[in-house]
Structure prediction request, 598 residues.
Amino acid sequence: MTTPHGAWLVAAALWPVLAMLLVVVSGGRHAARITLLAMPVGLVIALIIGAHVLPEGAPLRYHLGGWLPPLGIGLAADGLSAIMLLTTAVVIGAAGLFARADFAPAAGAPATRTSLVFWVLLLAVWAGMNLVVIGRDLFNLYVALELLTFAAVPLVCLDGRKETLGAALRYLMFALLGSVLYLLGAVLLYGAYGTLDIGLLAERVQPEPAAWLAGALITVGLLAKTALFPLHLWLPPAHAGAPPAASAILSALVVKGSFVLVIRLWFEVMPGLWSVAGTQLLGALGAAAILYGSVLALRQQRLKLLIAYSTVAQIGYLFLVFPLAFDPAVAQLVPGVALTGGVLQLVSHAFAKAGMFMAAGLIAVALGHDRVSDLAGTARILPVSLFAFALAGVSLVGLPPSGGFAAKWLLLSAALGTGQWWWAVVIVLGGLLTGGYLVLVLMRALNPPETPLTMAKPVARSREVIALALSMSALLLGLLALGPLELPPLIGSGAVPVAGP
Amino acid sequence: MTTVTLFGLCGSVLVGLGLYGLLTHPQPLRRLIGFNLLGSGIFLIFGVIARRGGTAAVGGDPVPQALVITAIVVAFAATALVVALLLRVFTPEQGSS
Prediction:
């Protein structure tokens, strides 16, 4: 049944598309203006949905055309969707403001094709993300995932250089493999249970080979899009080669879209289908991603590649949720402290990584390069950007009072609470390694330059402030979780009380 | 062997061939063909599922057919995007030596 205010979900899905059509029709001259005007409205829509969903925890629902599942397509926003809608609106808005200097044609100058394409793709990523987090029909979600991929891939190669084109091609190949595996899984589920609606599937799915095979196919497909180790190979060149504003949304949002669907599949569609082994395997891949990504980040010579490998590692933390949320007593995944920690990690990493990529982009503009070994003097010429970088680092390492700290604290307490100490070791070790590569960058940047530095290109203070604001949001998220906090149910029903650190 | 089983097996073989090609070939164009084979296999399996879900009155479950059309369009768009990227990657840049 469509709930009151459910129509806001349609607005969330359609508003970015509407803005995108306007941009295409009006041409490159007004692209930036229309996009930047559309963003506050989109944020308000996300806030309205959040205000309805988050306090009570009752999801909003909308059934397209009044058709109920299994034939009709449903949209719904639960706590997780509302949080993702808000995060997306904020990060996309910040990326838009940040990108104005790069992609808005200067007064009098002709509009370029690249600038038009950038704004269209930015809005398309936004539309894709919103659809992915509110969709309730597996096939509809497949189309949404594809929209997201088709918008994200060209963002990688906006500058048209051979390296970035190659990186985009590699990204697209991994993503396509992921989507066909997902589609095959969805098809098998339809064949076995006659529906693609998440709610109906949850009632009908039985522990049997068809469901296991479909679940495994969908999971592997989504992992390829989320870039979980060992399917991460496409991520570093793609995220490091994109323009800074694009890197920010690719790392902060796009990989999280497919992760949200993994959560939906494992926690909502088939929570009782997985054995200890399945959840431990996902956790082990996450742990491998944390260690491998961090060690490779330590060895990078280029700042943007270092940050991209750090994304590989931070994605690993998200997958520790699965072994930690598995309750052997009832033999199923239970949303609780671990899931809350995972979602907090998702949001705080989104803000921190967006801020960090933007700060690194500004450093690269000002210095004319982004070699880690030659960062000396950055603190003198770009103190605000470096501060933004450092604050984002605080959250990635997981130092108090950041959102990253609260997330890792919740994961740690879940690990110790369920007696799975080995995940606690990984979390702490990952934090140490993260601290290692970030301190390495900061120490070099704080060194005085050997020869007086001049900026290769001036950097607007307003852009530094945007990066700083994002990093600051990641930091302040931790304060939300400082007191004992009553979180609304992220998925399912019933309030989940969570003790703060 | 019924027709449905035969088509189901054909679909499975296509999925296997496509997956093998997509995973093992280093050349992007061959991988693209693998992706399309794999996609066709999935569409065929979906068709089989539609047929199996049919009743005496209706020859087949119409829902998968509607979905397959959308999936074909999406796969076509993906193929076009890959080909466009391939052309950009392998066309020598004009004006550069």
Chain A touches chain B at residues 71, 139, 142-143, 146, 150, 153-154, 157, 160, 162, 165-166, 168-169, 172-173, 176-177, 179-180, 183-184, 187-188, 190-191, 194 (CB under 8 Å).
